[in-house]
Design goal:
76 residues, alpha+beta, Pemi-like Protein 1, Chain: D, 2 domains, two-stranded antiparallel sheet, 2 strands, 16% strand, SpoVT-AbrB_dom
């Protein structure tokens, strides 16, 4: 972990090691107790394909499973 400071124009410079590991583009998400930087992949579709490459269920099966879980949760 490292500390960084905004410059006079409000810019934040990330350390080189962070940029090399996570890239140059980020989404900024405001949380109740701070902010979070989420790296944006150069090709978001490729990143999604890689993330879900080992998922063996179809989108319809996943959707049905999510619906069933929501119904179960609502019934509690």
């Amino acid at each position: 972990m490292s500390d960084v400071t905004l410059d006079d124009r409000g810019r934040l410079t990330l350390p080189k090691e962070i940029r090399e590991q996570h890239g140059d583009q980020y989404h900024i998400v405001e949380l109740h107790d701070g902010i979070k930087l989420i790296p944006v992949a150069d090709d978001p579709l490729d990143a999604l394909r890689d993330e879900f490459a080992d998922v063996e269920k179809t989108a319809d099966e996943l959707r049905e499973r999510a619906r069933e879980a929501a119904v179960d949760e609502a019934g509690r």
